[in-house]
Amino acid sequence: MASSAEKNVASLFGDEDLSEMSGLKKGGDYIEVTCGCTSQRYGDAVGRLRVFASGDLEISCECTPGCKEDKLTPAAFEKHSEREGARKWKNNVWIILKGEKVSISKTVLLKYYNQALKNGNGSHKSHCGRPYHRDEFIRCTICNKERRFRLRSNEECRVYHDALLEQNWNCSNLPYDKITCDTEEERASRKAYRGCSRSPSCKGCTSCVCFGCNICRFSDCSCQTCVDFTMNSKA
C-alpha cells in the first residue's frame, strides 16, 4: 500500500513522466531529481532539484564536496555554475532523462512553475505557505567581516534575532557554519544573492522582506519589536 507521502507526490506528476529521470526521490509535497548546468570552462556543476506543487524550484548544489550552496533558485544555480553566455536557465539547467541531458524546459518539471506565474501566486510566501525571509548579514565587531544568516526556519530566525541584539557579536558566536575571524568573508558578488524566491539578487521585495510573523517574532523575547508583535497579534 502506498504511503500518504507517495500519494501526495503522485498527484504532482504521473509515474510515466518521472520513471526515467535520474536520481528521482519523492517527498510529501515535492519531487527531487538530479540536475546540472554546464560551463565550457569548468564543466558540469551537478545539484539536486526540488520541484514543489506550488511551483517553487530549489536547487542544492553538489558541484564540489564542500559546496554549501543550497536552496538556490535555478537562475542563481546557473550563475553559480559560471556558465558562459546568455542567462536562460530554463534552457541551460538540465536533468538526466533516459541517460541523456535534457533542459528542464523540455520536461514536465516546469508545469506548476508556469502555472504559478500565470496565476500570480507565491508573491510573498514560500512553498510551505509561510512568509519568506531572505538571508541577512551581521558584521563581526572584532574582524569587521560580514557573516550570512539564513532565515529558513523559526530556529534560524531566532539565532539572527538574538545576534542583532548582541552589541558585541562576533564570528565565534555563530552556532552553525563553525567559523572564526580568520575565515574569509564572502565575496561581494556572492553577497548580492540573498535567497529571494523571485530574484536571487533582489534588494528587497514582498517575497523576501517580512515585517513580522510567527516565524521571526518571539513571545518569550522582551525586545520591543517582539513585544509589539505579540501584543498586536492578540488584539
From TrEMBL:
<dbReference type="InterPro" id="IPR020533">
    <property type="entry name" value="Developmental_reg_ULTRAPETALA"/>
</dbReference>
<dbReference type="InterPro" id="IPR057011">
    <property type="entry name" value="ULT1/2_SAND"/>
</dbReference>
<dbReference type="Pfam" id="PF23292">
    <property type="entry name" value="SAND_ULT1"/>
</dbReference>
<dbReference type="InterPro" id="IPR000770">
    <property type="entry name" value="SAND_dom"/>
</dbReference>
<dbReference type="InterPro" id="IPR057012">
    <property type="entry name" value="ULT1/2_Znf"/>
</dbReference>
<dbReference type="GO" id="GO:0005634">
    <property type="term" value="C:nucleus"/>
</dbReference>
<feature type="domain" description="SAND">
    <location>
        <begin position="19"/>
        <end position="119"/>
    </location>
</feature>
<protein>
    <recommendedName>
        <fullName>SAND domain-containing protein</fullName>
    </recommendedName>
</protein>
<dbReference type="Pfam" id="PF23293">
    <property type="entry name" value="zf_ULT1"/>
</dbReference>
<dbReference type="GO" id="GO:0005829">
    <property type="term" value="C:cytosol"/>
</dbReference>
<dbReference type="GO" id="GO:0003677">
    <property type="term" value="F:DNA binding"/>
</dbReference>
